[in-house]
Specification:
Type 1 dockerin domain; 344 residues; mainly beta
Length: 344
């Protein structure tokens, strides 16, 4: 797994409360460009599309170089190669928690979930590399020597799923910045999920762990939050496939000896595993608001009690426990806290 840096520039709301919590969502102006590749090996048999009743002029497949009769299944091994990407406006949300401990701000990012496609779908070129035992065909008449892999363009695959979901804690290191505001760093552990649809069959890539390193600037104004972010991230992984077998998928196989013709076959098989890699870069534009869990509940534990009173008194004459938004913790904030005393 390889990751690169995600840079974030934040403009957020004044940290008026201890452990303030902000709900953040991605704006439609966000953009992500994703490139991905999948290698999908599979095995099975193919057979000519000949049918004595419905298609008597169709292709017949016969084992060996010469002789034989009928229409016979030919064993093969093969691999789909999926290469493509998406350019989309993603959707997503997460929360930022910020708390003042003495003169130091500390924070964390939680619940990050990004749908890179947001209902859209991407496209990817699909190539088929196939290897088989020696066989020959009738209609057209051609010989296919075994052990010689053939790579064919095979249309396109639709990228149907591309998500990033946070799977672990992501503390933020926050420091005061020159000229006001703050700078921060964070690293968000995520699980990346991808899926595609090729030849009418779903292809689920292995869920892949990754990390989104974050760094940027942070400032607070009122109860609103705004974020501009650029991102760059990469991951890869392999896992067994759970896709069901596919049956009688049409394939036009170019003739080998002589070249220039086309044998029309029906392919059946089973995908054995999926290897995938992806890289994502782009810009995230985020807005949000401060969550008021309970007015006076400064530590967000669901009750206004002596712990919250202690936080307020320790922040007296500062903005750290400002409940009414006037920028200072004083008797007015104390009155708000006492009026809210008890369970939320």
């Amino acid at each position: 797994m390889k990751t690169t840096i995600l840079f974030i520039s934040l403009c957020c709301a004044t940290p008026a409360l201890a452990a303030d919590l902000y709900d953040c969502t991605l704006a439609p102006s966000s953009n992500l460009v994703t490139t991905l590749s999948m290698d999908v090996p599979f095995t099975g048999t193919f057979i000519g599309n000949y049918d004595v009743v419905t298609l008597p002029t169709g292709t017949r497949t016969i084992p060996g170089f010469f002789g034989g009769s009928g229409n016979n299944p030919i064993p093969y091994t093969a691999s789909f190669g999926v290469d493509g990407g998406t350019n989309t406006s993603p959707a997503g949300a997460f929360q930022i928690s910020v708390e003042q401990v003495g003169k130091q701000l500390v924070g964390s990012i939680s619940g990050l979930a990004i749908d890179a496609l947001d209902g859209a779908s991407g496209s990817a070129d699909l190539a088929l590399t196939i290897n088989y035992t020696t066989f020959h065909t009738v209609a057209p008449n051609s010989i296919y020597p075994g052990g010689i892999p053939i790579t064919l363009p095979f249309g396109t695959a639709n990228v149907t799923v591309l998500t990033l979901a946070q799977v672990g804690a992501a503390p933020m290191v926050i420091t005061s910045a020159k000229g006001g505001g703050y700078t921060f760093t964070a690293a968000v552990p995520v699980m990346i999920t991808m899926a595609a649809d090729a030849m009418g069959q779903p292809i689920d890539a292995p869920p892949t762990p990754g990390v989104l390193p974050l760094m940027g600037t942070l400032s607070f104004t009122g109860d609103t939050v705004h974020m501009n972010a650029t991102t760059s991230q990469q991951s890869n992984g392999t896992q067994p496939s759970t896709a069901p077998p596919f049956v009688n998928q049409p394939i036009a196989l170019p003739t080998v000896l002589p070249a220039g013709g086309t044998a029309n076959l029906l392919m059946s098989g089973l995908i054995t595993e999926v290897t995938s890699s992806q890289s994502t870069s782009g810009t995230l534009v985020v807005s949000g608001t401060r969550v008021i869990v309970c007015e006076g509940d400064l530590n967000h534990d669901g009750i206004v009690d002596a712990v919250d009173l202690s936080i307020l008194l320790n922040g007296w004459d500062t903005a750290s426990a400002d409940l009414n938004g006037d920028g200072i913790t004083n008797a007015q904030d104390l009155a708000i806290l006492l009026n809210a005393w008890g369970a939320c």
